[in-house]
Sequence to fold (275 residues):
Amino acid sequence: MKGKYTVTAILSALGVPRANYYRWCAEGVEKLLSVKEEAIIELCKRTKYRNGHRKIKALLKQEYQIQLNRNTVQDIMQKHNLQCRIKPKRKWKSQGESVIVAPDLLKRDFFASEPNQKWVTDITYIQYGSTIKYLSTIMDLFNNEIIAYKLYDHQQTPLVIDTLKLALAARNNPEGVIVHSDQGSVYTSYAFQNYVKEHHLVSSMSRRGNCWDNAVIESFHSNLKSEEFQFTKFNTLSNQEVGERVITYLNYYNEERIQEKLGYLTPIKYGAMAA
Fold:
């Protein structure tokens, strides 16, 4: 365009300072933006598009030593259609109080200052295989690590007892741990409550109809379904594939998935740093 317009006129129309133009002429156009974009694209692909711009921003700094404003990261992700899937908001309505088998000792205080203070547990159904599977998990609220899980064909009492057995074995049989659950029949059963008492644990339960009282573990189950099975239709996988994908996600969650609560560290790294 210099044959038709002066450099000053072109730079004025483009809003480019003259100093920048002559610096580019001398040094070449900076390619750093494309490097940033490639890093963001790679992070989104590797994490299977599960993370929003805040976590991608944190990973960008951790793994590539590139520090960007979160709005810039969001703009780049939007430019390349890399936005994570938004979980639908869960509708909740209080169903009132009822007889509580065990008191709610957590009272929505999901902070633990050290490991094995507070464990939360729940069951969710996985219906992507040829038959419905039931996943029982236990999370340590110190670092939100999933310390035990069982995937069974039923949701009867042995499912939750076996999960608790596994958690105790993994943590060298600690005593005095608060084990918080909802008021499902398996948790209120004599067999489960007796097992809790025999191992010197403390039972705690959400109020009936108040899902927020056990929100952390319920959120984890929701993340598992929305992130690992987000493009999967019900009853389209083999049961073996379902089991493999659950294990894959649990390993990813504990070892790779960073959390804002943990200072953008993974549960395993946070636990190791605090040890």
In short: The chain is about 45% helix and 10% strand. The chain has a mean pLDDT of 88. The first helix runs from residue 7 to 14.
